[in-house]
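Q: I'm writing up a methods section and want to include an example of the input and output format. Could you take the sequence below and give the corresponding predicted C-alpha cells, formatted cleanly so I can copy it straight into the document?
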Amino acid sequence: MARQDQANDQFSLTSFLYGGNADYIDSLYASYEDDPESVNPEWQEFFAGLKDDAGDVRRNAKGASWAKPSWPLQANGELVSALDGNWGIVEKTIEKKVKDKAVTNGVVLSDADVHQA
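A: Here is the clean output for your methods example:
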C-alpha cells in the first residue's frame, strides 16, 4: 500500500505537466532562466530541480525549429469576409478596381464617390 501512496504522491506533484499547458510551462521556464525571481517560489523550486541547459530551455520556449512562420494559412477570401464581417482586403481590391475603371473611362472620382461605389 505504501508503494501506491508514493505513486499517488508523485502523480499529485506532477499532474500539472501535460501537453495542454506545455507551451505555457516552457515560456515560464524560459522566464525563470532569465530571472528566477520572475516566477513564484513553487515554480522556482520545481525548475531548480530540473537542472536543464538554459540554452535548450530558451529554444524550447521559442517553439519547434521546423515550424513554418507562415502557417497556418490565413483564410481571408471574399467568402470568409462575407461570414466574418472583415472586409478590409476586399474593400481595397474593389476600391482599386473602381478607380482603375474610372481612369480608363476618363471619369474623375472623389474618395467619397469611390466609397459610395
